[in-house]
Amino acid sequence: MLAKRIIPCLDVKEGRVVKGIQFVNLRDAGDPVELAAFYDQQGADELVFLDISASHEGRETMVDVVEQVAGQLAIPFTVGGGINSLADMKRILRAGADKVSLNTAAVLRPELITEGADFFGSQCIVVAIDAKYDEALRSWRVFTHGGRKPTEWEVIAWAKEAVKRGAGEILLTSMDQDGEKKGFDLPLTKAVGEAVTVPVIASGGAGSKEDFDPVFKEAKADAALAASIFHYKETSVAEVKSFLKQKGVEVR
Amino acid sequence: MIGIVDYGMGNLHSVSKALERLNYDYFISEKQDELAKADGLILPGVGSFKDAMEILRKENLDKFLTNWASLGKPILGICLGMQLLFDKSEENGETTGLSLLKGKVRRFKGVTETGERYKVPHMGWNRLQFHQEHSLLDQVEEGHVYFVHSYVVQEMDKAELLASCDYDVIVPAVVGKNNVLGTQFHPEKSSSVGMKLLENFASMVTKEKEAKIHE
Fold it and tell me: GO cellular-component terms in the record (chain A) (predicted)?
């Protein structure tokens, strides 16, 4: 049986981790390489780096960061943000990332998923979906551009389409729950998980270690991602895992 | 010195970085005359069995590797690299492998015998179960390691199964027959458990080198 994965997410801007992370034992709190090593020691099963650089130089710096992280980490890591072409994917994967995550670019040009999957294999291609409940649609709607733009896509239909085109994993963020710290969006996670044949990473809403139990047991997520609760030390990866173990959830 | 076989199908970076961290010398090459100078080989691999065998055949690397194995020199296949060591695979039509180990590579069914669906690829951390003692597993923890694959080795010789995990079927995870070794998971992405295994392989290679000097 596969262990449920706990994945910290780091926002990286111009080569530095942002969000004002407060770690005591690190020399340089904003260094993505040191933070990656820190989470690795804590038992993180994987890491996600989100490149939120605004400039071209920032994106180039990201390639250096990926290379340095690859030299330090013995766990898989995914890089997302600003990947718009096969050339972007090549740069990031050759620098040592294990997977790339596509979001807006995949909605604008779904062929990109297939191009990536054909070249690198489906296991390398994660499609990230930002989902928000829509009363009129009576379901969730896909948003792009960092959650600013609504699209025509209903989430389940888009998730299926992405998988059909070669996505090896879905990173599903609930915009409704994100930042609320009231727990993951269980109905959304469950609905997408039942609709697709690839692993689903639930994201958005984690407020405490307790929130990780229902997302695995009820919503059947394969992995759960969180940022602020780990960054602000409200809990730790190790604490979440020992809690889950007590609850009978298989973790590493 | 470990030679990493570059035939265009591997994630060479992560394996080489792992060896760097362990402080073992390595080089990456696709040339037989260079690879022949190594004391041990790593055959990585991501992608399809058929494409991989076609490239190996085209470059005559298939014969080189079979010959290498017959000389008793250590070789470690990783992921697809491990599957290539077996007789054949059904991926994209039946393809003959290097046939250094007995067994066939089949796709995960995606449905259990009782009709329950499960996800393919088998992706994530799964727990190892050891079947026998082996120097490759020396001081390796029987813990979780990282898998990403849609095909699985079946009908292999039990004597050559060193460790497995459970994912609907018994998934051969570490295999070995004398000097021919393989891991279905990615040791270079499997934290301390995987790094220890890689270190064990590297020290087997070092012993091989010392034996050669004493000859």
Answer: cytoplasm
